[in-house]
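C-alpha coordinates for chain A. Residues wanted.
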Protein backbone atom coordinates (compact mmCIF):
# COMPACT_ATOMS: atom_id res chain seq x y z
CA UNK A 1 0.00 0.00 0.00
CA UNK A 2 2.85 2.39 0.89
CA UNK A 3 4.66 1.64 -2.35
CA UNK A 4 1.56 2.55 -4.35
CA UNK A 5 1.20 5.90 -2.60
CA UNK A 6 4.80 6.80 -3.27
CA UNK A 7 4.49 5.93 -6.96
CA UNK A 8 1.48 8.18 -7.52
CA UNK A 9 1.98 11.59 -9.06
CA UNK A 10 2.29 14.54 -6.68
CA UNK A 11 -0.83 16.54 -5.92
CA UNK A 12 0.74 19.81 -6.98
CA UNK A 13 2.04 20.72 -10.39
CA UNK A 14 3.81 23.64 -11.99
CA UNK A 15 0.51 24.79 -13.50
CA UNK A 16 -0.99 25.15 -10.03
CA UNK A 17 1.94 27.28 -8.87
CA UNK A 18 1.42 29.90 -11.60
CA UNK A 19 0.19 33.21 -10.25
CA UNK A 20 -3.08 34.27 -11.81
CA UNK A 21 -3.44 37.83 -13.06
CA UNK A 22 -6.54 39.89 -12.53
CA UNK A 23 -8.67 40.14 -15.63
CA UNK A 24 -9.52 43.57 -16.99
CA UNK A 25 -12.36 45.03 -14.92
CA UNK A 26 -12.37 42.17 -12.41
CA UNK A 27 -11.64 44.40 -9.41
CA UNK A 28 -14.28 46.94 -10.43
CA UNK A 29 -16.83 44.15 -10.81
CA UNK A 30 -15.89 42.76 -7.38
CA UNK A 31 -16.44 46.17 -5.78
CA UNK A 32 -19.80 46.53 -7.55
CA UNK A 33 -20.81 43.09 -6.26
CA UNK A 34 -19.74 44.11 -2.75
CA UNK A 35 -21.92 47.24 -3.00
CA UNK A 36 -24.84 45.14 -4.24
CA UNK A 37 -24.32 42.63 -1.42
CA UNK A 38 -24.33 45.40 1.17
CA UNK A 39 -27.48 46.87 -0.38
CA UNK A 40 -29.19 43.45 -0.24
CA UNK A 41 -28.10 43.05 3.39
CA UNK A 42 -29.58 46.44 4.32
CA UNK A 43 -32.81 45.67 2.45
CA UNK A 44 -33.06 42.28 4.15
CA UNK A 45 -32.58 43.92 7.55
CA UNK A 46 -35.36 46.40 6.76
CA UNK A 47 -37.82 43.53 6.26
CA UNK A 48 -38.06 42.75 9.96
CA UNK A 49 -34.71 43.46 11.60
CA UNK A 50 -33.35 40.98 14.12
CA UNK A 51 -36.75 40.42 15.72
CA UNK A 52 -36.39 36.61 15.80
CA UNK A 53 -34.56 33.76 14.14
CA UNK A 54 -37.77 32.74 12.36
CA UNK A 55 -38.66 36.22 11.12
CA UNK A 56 -39.31 36.89 7.46
CA UNK A 57 -36.04 38.75 6.96
CA UNK A 58 -33.71 36.23 8.60
CA UNK A 59 -33.07 34.01 5.57
CA UNK A 60 -32.41 37.00 3.26
CA UNK A 61 -30.08 38.49 5.91
CA UNK A 62 -28.09 35.26 6.20
CA UNK A 63 -27.85 34.94 2.41
CA UNK A 64 -26.76 38.58 2.08
CA UNK A 65 -24.24 38.21 4.91
CA UNK A 66 -22.72 35.23 3.09
CA UNK A 67 -22.52 37.35 -0.05
CA UNK A 68 -20.75 40.16 1.84
CA UNK A 69 -18.24 37.77 3.43
CA UNK A 70 -17.57 36.03 0.11
CA UNK A 71 -17.00 39.35 -1.66
CA UNK A 72 -14.72 40.53 1.15
CA UNK A 73 -12.62 37.38 0.76
CA UNK A 74 -12.48 37.83 -3.01
CA UNK A 75 -11.41 41.47 -2.64
CA UNK A 76 -8.69 40.52 -0.14
CA UNK A 77 -7.43 37.77 -2.46
CA UNK A 78 -7.51 40.14 -5.45
CA UNK A 79 -5.00 42.39 -3.67
CA UNK A 80 -2.45 39.57 -3.91
CA UNK A 81 -2.91 39.07 -7.66
CA UNK A 82 -0.94 40.80 -10.39
CA UNK A 83 -2.69 43.74 -12.03
CA UNK A 84 -4.03 43.34 -15.57
CA UNK A 85 -1.91 44.53 -18.48
CA UNK A 86 -3.68 47.82 -19.14
CA UNK A 87 -2.62 51.42 -19.61
CA UNK A 88 -4.78 53.08 -17.01
CA UNK A 89 -8.42 52.77 -16.00
CA UNK A 90 -9.83 53.80 -19.38
CA UNK A 91 -7.90 51.06 -21.21
CA UNK A 92 -8.84 48.50 -18.55
CA UNK A 93 -12.55 49.36 -18.89
CA UNK A 94 -12.33 49.18 -22.69
CA UNK A 95 -10.72 45.73 -22.48
CA UNK A 96 -13.26 44.57 -19.90
CA UNK A 97 -16.19 45.75 -22.03
CA UNK A 98 -14.74 43.95 -25.05
CA UNK A 99 -14.41 40.69 -23.09
CA UNK A 100 -17.72 40.86 -21.21
CA UNK A 101 -19.93 42.43 -23.89
CA UNK A 102 -19.18 40.82 -27.25
CA UNK A 103 -21.16 41.88 -30.32
CA UNK A 104 -23.38 38.77 -30.33
CA UNK A 105 -24.44 39.50 -26.74
CA UNK A 106 -25.29 43.14 -27.46
CA UNK A 107 -27.25 42.33 -30.63
CA UNK A 108 -29.17 39.51 -28.96
CA UNK A 109 -29.96 41.77 -26.01
CA UNK A 110 -31.43 44.18 -28.57
CA UNK A 111 -33.53 41.35 -30.03
CA UNK A 112 -34.86 40.51 -26.54
CA UNK A 113 -35.68 44.16 -25.84
CA UNK A 114 -37.45 44.37 -29.22
CA UNK A 115 -39.50 41.31 -28.27
CA UNK A 116 -40.45 42.86 -24.93
CA UNK A 117 -41.55 46.06 -26.68
CA UNK A 118 -43.53 44.26 -29.40
CA UNK A 119 -45.39 41.82 -27.15
CA UNK A 120 -47.82 44.51 -25.98
CA UNK A 121 -49.00 45.89 -29.35
CA UNK A 122 -48.69 42.63 -31.37
CA UNK A 123 -49.70 40.23 -28.57
CA UNK A 124 -48.04 36.95 -27.67
CA UNK A 125 -48.25 34.75 -30.77
CA UNK A 126 -47.04 37.14 -33.51
CA UNK A 127 -44.31 38.71 -31.37
CA UNK A 128 -43.11 35.31 -30.11
CA UNK A 129 -43.09 33.98 -33.67
CA UNK A 130 -40.97 36.93 -34.81
CA UNK A 131 -38.66 36.53 -31.79
CA UNK A 132 -38.11 32.82 -32.39
CA UNK A 133 -37.57 33.30 -36.11
CA UNK A 134 -35.12 36.19 -35.76
CA UNK A 135 -33.29 34.44 -32.90
CA UNK A 136 -32.77 31.22 -34.83
CA UNK A 137 -31.64 33.04 -37.96
CA UNK A 138 -29.30 35.40 -36.07
CA UNK A 139 -27.77 32.68 -33.94
CA UNK A 140 -27.35 30.58 -37.10
CA UNK A 141 -29.23 27.62 -35.69
CA UNK A 142 -30.89 26.80 -38.99
CA UNK A 143 -31.97 28.00 -42.40
CA UNK A 144 -34.88 30.41 -42.92
CA UNK A 145 -37.26 27.63 -44.02
CA UNK A 146 -36.29 25.39 -41.11
CA UNK A 147 -36.61 28.34 -38.70
CA UNK A 148 -40.13 29.08 -40.04
CA UNK A 149 -41.18 25.47 -39.51
CA UNK A 150 -39.63 25.20 -36.02
CA UNK A 151 -41.12 28.54 -34.91
CA UNK A 152 -44.57 27.58 -36.18
CA UNK A 153 -44.52 24.14 -34.54
CA UNK A 154 -43.14 25.51 -31.27
CA UNK A 155 -45.84 28.17 -31.01
CA UNK A 156 -48.54 25.69 -31.99
CA UNK A 157 -47.44 23.40 -29.14
CA UNK A 158 -47.30 26.32 -26.68
CA UNK A 159 -50.76 27.48 -27.76
CA UNK A 160 -52.29 24.00 -27.44
CA UNK A 161 -50.74 23.34 -24.03
CA UNK A 162 -51.71 26.68 -22.52
CA UNK A 163 -55.13 26.98 -24.18
CA UNK A 164 -56.42 23.44 -23.72
CA UNK A 165 -54.45 21.87 -20.87
CA UNK A 166 -53.79 24.81 -18.54
CA UNK A 167 -56.79 26.86 -19.75
CA UNK A 168 -54.68 30.04 -19.72
CA UNK A 169 -55.43 32.85 -22.14
CA UNK A 170 -52.19 33.99 -23.71
CA UNK A 171 -51.65 37.76 -23.85
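Reply:
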Amino acid sequence: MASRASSERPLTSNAMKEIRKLRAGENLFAWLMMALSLFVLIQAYLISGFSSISSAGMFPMVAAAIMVVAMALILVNNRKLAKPDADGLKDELRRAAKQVLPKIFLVYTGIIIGYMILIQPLHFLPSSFAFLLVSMIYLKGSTVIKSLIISTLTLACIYIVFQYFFRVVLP
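The mean pLDDT is 86. The longest helix spans residues 26-48.
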